[in-house]
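Morning F.,

Quick status update on the modeling queue. The single chain you submitted on Monday has been processed. Sequence for confirmation:
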Amino acid sequence: MELQNLIGYLVHRTDVKMTNYFTKQLKPYDITPEQWSIISVLNDQNGLTQKELAEAIDRDQTTVARMIHSMEKKEFVKKVFNDKDKRSHYIFLTEKGEHIKNKIIPVVNDAHHFVTTNLDEQELKQLKLILNKLYNTRY
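Structure tokens below.
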């Protein structure tokens, strides 16, 4: 089978291209796509644990811990200890994190529209369905 016909290759190639584009769009804001995913999740549900964040963005906890540490240095997020379990803490967006989120949302929307501009609504809906179906396959 030719490489160009393998779904894994096509998905990976597309992911790399889209991630590179998105990285360039976020660079002026000193945010990575991975950090944006944390901001986006916290925007929907502020005050998650590191474990919950890791599950939400499909990353391991060690990677998320490093990302949170970097974002704390930038003052985008803060940790608040869990009163019931001192080993864990909740992650919240700071005022600075809220500010950067509001600045980045239009950039994210523009980037999304740019990379999907060649797809009509039905194709976009079908693509999401297929990608989620592939993701949810057990292997």
